[in-house]
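DM from R.C. (forwarded with permission)

"hey, sorry to bug you on a friday — could you get me a structure for this? deadline for the figure draft is monday and I only need the backbone to look sensible"
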Amino acid sequence: MNLVTRKYHFIQELSNVDEDLMEKLELLVKASKKDWYSDLSVKEKEEIEIGISQAENNDLVSHTTIMDKFAKWH
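My reply, with the result:
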């Protein structure tokens, strides 16, 4: 049986599950989803943390300021 057929049969079975089983299935699906953050390198994670820290400290530069600064290359 191919994957499409198996999915179809599984969807058919879902219409008959009770609340308890539905909650368990939802938890299983949620737990099996891969988190993109875990695939990042240490350096990428550090850069994200720096950005979050800067944002929390209101150390930001507006989009307009950046666009004005680099307008000469447009």
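R.C.: lifesaver. The mean pLDDT is 91.
me: no worries. Residues 42-56 form the longest helix (15 residues).
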